[in-house]
Amino acid sequence: MTLVEFLRARLDEDDQRLDDIDHFQAPAGNMAKARREIDAKQRVVERCEDEMRSYVGTGAQAATPYLVLRMLAVPYAEHPDYRPEWRPA
Fold it and tell me: Rounded to an integer, what distance in angstroms lies between the CA atom of residue 32 and that of residue 49?
């Protein structure tokens, strides 16, 4: 599993958890904010993946996009699929 795949799976899980919440118990504003946060993170992952693809074959490294992805993965560090090498230095 790549870091991008890992993040997409975790964000999909987060989104599913929101779907499972009893909407009568959670304030609508909190739900909307949580959805916007997930959407923003999904867009960041997509943008970083695009950036890293643009480096393929150039010999250059995609250090910044990869670092951003690694930082996005930190909240999921306890997940069994999280890899220690993804931890930001």
Answer: 26
